[in-house]
Automatic annotation (TrEMBL):
Species for this entry: Nonomuraea rubra
Transmembrane segments: 333-353, 373-391, 411-435, 447-468
This protein's name: Dienelactone hydrolase
Protein keywords: Hydrolase, Membrane, Signal, Transmembrane, Transmembrane helix
Coiled coil: none
InterPro entries on file: AB_hydrolase_Est10, AB_hydrolase_fold, Pept_S9_AS, Peptidase_S9_cat
Domain Peptidase S9 prolyl oligopeptidase catalytic intervals: 114-271
Signal peptide: 1-22
GO biological-process terms attached to the record: proteolysis
Presence of keyword Hydrolase: yes
Length: 471
C-alpha cells in the first residue's frame, strides 16, 4: 500500500510540475528554435520565458527582450507574432510570462517590472551565440513606461524600441483612451465630456488606479541608448499625435538625439493591421514593421543609429488628451462615498419604512405619489449610473461598447438622464406636499418625506457633477 501511495504521489508531483516547464510557445515555425529559460525578476521572483532564434543562427547576433503591455500574468504567447517576426530578422528574442505576483488591476510597480526586464536582459546576454553588447529591450504600451526605466538603470541595454508608448501619465492616458474609444463609437455629450473623466479622477483619488501620476519624461531623459519609436496611425490607446513630440523633447533634453520615430498606416496601438481604424486588431503586423526593426537594430548596434528621424503618415487623433488635476475636497473619493451613502439612505429609506409598516401591520398612510417616483428614480439613477460608467471603464478604451445609440447619445445614458430629471421633478413635488402638510399627518411620515426631499436636494449637484443633468 505504501508503494502504491508513493507511486501516486510521485505521479501527482510530475503532473503538477509538467505545466510549469512545458511552456514553449506552440506552433513555432520550423525555421526557428526555442530554448526555455528562467531568471529572477524584481523581489527575487522566478520568471520563465523562451529564447526564440533562427535555426541557422550566426554567432555574434543581436538579441532583444520583449516587455508586455498591461495585464496580469500575460502569457508569452501574446507576443509570439512579434517574437517570430524579429527572430526571422536574425535576432534572438526572449519573451517571458509576465508576473502576477505584486501586479493586479489596482496595484503594480513600473520599477519592479523594470527589474523583471533587467533580469531577462541578463539572461539573454548569456545565451550562446548572442553578442552581449548587442542586446536591447522592446516595450509595448505599458512596457513603454517600463523599458526607459530599465534602460536608464543599466548600460547592459544596447538599444530601446518602444511601440505604442506614451509620454503622458497613466491616468491621463487611460482617461483619454476610454474617451477616444467612446468617440470612435460615435458618443458625444456629457457622458464622454464629464462623467468618464470624473470617474477616473475619483478612482485615482481612492487609490484604485495604480501608478496614476507616473511621469515618464524624467526617465526618458535618462535614456542614453538609441531609441526607435513606433506607432500605428490609428492608435486608440496612446495619443499618437501628442506623445512623439514630448518624447523627442525629453530625449533631447537628456542629450540623446539618436532616435527614430516611425508611423505605420492601417495599424493600431500594437502596430498590428486594423481594418476599422483601430477598433479591431488583426494577427498580422503592419507591413515593413519587422523589417524596420531588423534594419534599425543592425544600424544601432554598429554605431550608425539614425539621428532625430521622423517618418510615416500623419497619425489620426480626433481629440486632445486632457489634464487630470487633483480632486477638490467636495469631489474626493471620500466625499463621493459619503454622498452616495446619504442618497442611498434618503431614497432607500422611503420603501424600507413602507415595508416595515406592512410587516408590522400598522395603519397605512396616504402616500404621496411623487415620493414613490423620487425614491425609485433616485435609486435607479444612482446605482444605474455608476454601474454603466464602471462597465465602460472596465471594458477599456477602444473596446467600450456603449450600446444602442440615439444620435450621439447611448440610449441607456439617455434613459438614466431622463430618470434623473424625473427624480428632481418628483422631489420638488414631494417638497411642496410636505410644506402643505407641515401641521398634518403623522410625525414619522413627515420625517420620512423630509429625508426624501433632502435627498433630492443633494441629488441635484451630484447629478450635475456626473453629467446626468447636463446635455
Amino acid at each position: 500500500m505504501r508503494k502504491i501511495l508513493a507511486t501516486l504521489v510521485a505521479l501527482l508531483v510530475i503532473a503538477l510540475a509538467l505545466p510549469a516547464h512545458a511552456t514553449a510557445p506552440p506552433g513555432l515555425p520550423g525555421d526557428l528554435t526555442s530554448t526555455e529559460v528562467s531568471f529572477r525578476g524584481g523581489g527575487d521572483l522566478e520568471l520563465r520565458g523562451s529564447v526564440i532564434s533562427p535555426a541557422a543562427a550566426t554567432a555574434g547576433r543581436p538579441g532583444v527582450v520583449l516587455v508586455h503591455g498591461a495585464g496580469t500574468g500575460t502569457r508569452r504567447e501574446k507576443l509570439l507574432a512579434e517574437a517570430v517576426a524579429f527572430a526571422r530578422q536574425g535576432m534572438s528574442v526572449l519573451v517571458y510570462d509576465k508576473r502576477s505576483v505584486g501586479y493586479s488591476l489596482f496595484k503594480r510597480s513600473y520599477a519592479q517590472l523594470a527589474e523583471d526586464a533587467l533580469g531577462a536582459v541578463g539572461t539573454l546576454r548569456r545565451q550562446p551565440g548572442v553578442d552581449p553588447a548587442k542586446v536591447g529591450i522592446w516595450g509595448l504600451s505599458e512596457g513603454g513606461w517600463v523599458a526607459p526605466i530599465a534602460a536608464g538603470r543599466s548600460t547592459d541595454i544596447a538599444f530601446v524600441i518602444l511601440v505604442g508608448a506614451n509620454a503622458l501619465s497613466p491616468l491621463r492616458q487611460q482617461s483619454w483612451a476610454t474617451a477616444a474609444g467612446l468617440r470612435k463609437a460615435g458618443v458625444g455629450g456629457s457622458l464622454v465630456d464629464r462623467a468618464e473623466p470624473s470617474l477616473y479622477r475619483v478612482i485615482a483619488d481612492g487609490g484604485m488606479f495604480p501608478e496614476p501620476k507616473h511621469d515618464p519624461v524624467p526617465f526618458l531623459a535618462k535614456v542614453r541608448q538609441p531609441v526607435l519609436g513606433i506607432w500605428g496611425v490609428h492608435d486608440l490607446l496612446t495619443p499618437p499625435r501628442e506623445t512623439p513630440p514630448i518624447m523627442a523633447e525629453a530625449l533631447e533634453d537628456g542629450g540623446n538625439r539618436r532616435y527614430a520615430f516611425r508611423f505605420f498606416a492601417d495599424a493600431d496601438h500594437a502596430a498590428h493591421l486594423t481594418p476599422d481604424g483601430g477598433v479591431t486588431r488583426l494577427p498580422e503586423l503592419a507591413p515593413g514593421y519587422a523589417e524596420l526593426v531588423g534594419t534599425w537594430v543592425r544600424e544601432a548596434t554598429s554605431g550608425r543609429a539614425p539621428v532625430a528621424q521622423v517618418s510615416g503618415p500623419d497619425p489620426v487623433q480626433a481629440s486632445d488628451s486632457f489634464g487630470m488635476p487633483p480632486t477638490a475636497w467636495w469631489e474626493s473619493a471620500a466625499m463621493q462615498l459619503v454622498v452616495v451613502v446619504l442618497l442611498l439612505v434618503a431614497f432607500g429609506g422611503y420603501p424600507v419604512v413602507a415595508l416595515v409598516r406592512r410587516v408590522r401591520r400598522r395603519a397605512a398612510v396616504t402616500p404621496v405619489k411623487a415620493a414613490r417616483l423620487a425614491s425609485a428614480g433616485g435609486l435607479v439613477a444612482l446605482l444605474g449610473g455608476f454601474a454603466y460608467l464602471l462597465y465602460l471603464v472596465m471594458t477599456g478604451g477602444k473596446l467600450s461598447v456603449p450600446g444602442p445609440m440615439a444620435g450621439d447619445r447611448p440610449i441607456l445614458w439617455l434613459a438614466l438622464q431622463a430618470i434623473a430629471v424625473a427624480t428632481v421633478a418628483a422631489a420638488a413635488v414631494t417638497a411642496a406636499a410636505v410644506a402643505r402638510a407641515r401641521q398634518a399627518g403623522p410625525r414619522g411620515e413627515r420625517v420620512r418625506l423630509g429625508l426624501l426631499v433632502a435627498g433630492g436636494v443633494v441629488f441635484v449637484p451630484w447629478a450635475l457633477y456626473w453629467g446626468l443633468l447636463l446635455p
